[in-house]
Task: inverse folding
């Protein structure tokens, strides 16, 4: 099973021997890969929609893995019994939905060891939620694929760390690693923000323009702080 860069990065954070619940499995590619590569011992592939789940079931059957991968129709973790798996994967959904799944599935997730999360949006809100709910982000990765950037978090239960404001947006672990993909992303963000500022400066002043400029100033400061941290560490080595 060949995975996209994004899904491969998600699978790479799964601990060998894990039993996995893949929530929002879509085509079932991650479960198939995890079993074929002998990373996971078993996987429960779950989706809220019957169509994607049926496609996943067919793909799993075609690979001869129906005895190792079970499919379940489920809204989040609702069809999962506490203690059934030790790892949760949620990939390819918005940050708000990731938070909803974690919040609604607390009874199940509290019995798990690890969560692998790949939010498509609102990454800062996801990191804030995790720190508030006493999750520890133990590892992070980031990939670029088809012009889009995807952060992936590996999370365990434990006392969360203190975060600077910009670390919620760009990731404490990614910054500590001076991750090259994050650096590229920050450089792109700087260029976009400068372009937006020039466009705003050309427009007639108004309350809405002033508000947007103030918001942009905060965004630019966060991006600059993150980029300087990566650059300073890079130059010192």
Result:
């Amino acid at each position: 099973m060949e995975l996209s860069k994004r899904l491969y990065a998600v699978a790479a954070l799964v601990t060998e021997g894990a039993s996995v619940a893949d929530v929002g499995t879509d085509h079932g590619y991650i479960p198939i890969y995890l079993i074929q590569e002998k990373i996971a011992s078993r996987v429960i592939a779950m989706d809220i929609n019957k169509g994607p789940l049926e496609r996943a079931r067919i793909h799993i059957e075609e690979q001869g893995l129906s005895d190792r991968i079970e499919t379940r129709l489920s809204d989040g973790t609702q069809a999962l019994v506490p203690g059934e798996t030790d790892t949760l994967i949620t990939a390819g959904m918005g940050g708000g939905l990731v938070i909803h799944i974690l919040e609604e599935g607390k009874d199940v997730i509290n019995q798990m060891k690890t969560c692998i999360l790949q939010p498509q949006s609102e990454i800062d809100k996801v990191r804030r939620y995790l720190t508030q709910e006493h999750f520890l982000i133990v590892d992070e990765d980031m990939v670029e694929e088809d012009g889009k950037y995807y952060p992936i978090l590996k999370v365990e239960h434990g006392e969360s760390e203190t975060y600077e404001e910009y670390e919620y947006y760009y990731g404490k672990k990614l910054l500590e690693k001076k991750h090259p993909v994050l650096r590229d992303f920050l450089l792109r963000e700087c260029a976009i923000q400068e372009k937006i500022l020039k466009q705003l400066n050309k427009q007639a002043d108004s309350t809405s323009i002033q508000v947007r400029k103030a918001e942009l100033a905060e965004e630019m400061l966060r991006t600059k702080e993150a980029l300087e941290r990566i650059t300073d560490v890079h130059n010192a080595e």
User: Anything to note?
Assistant: The chain is about 50% helix and 20% strand.
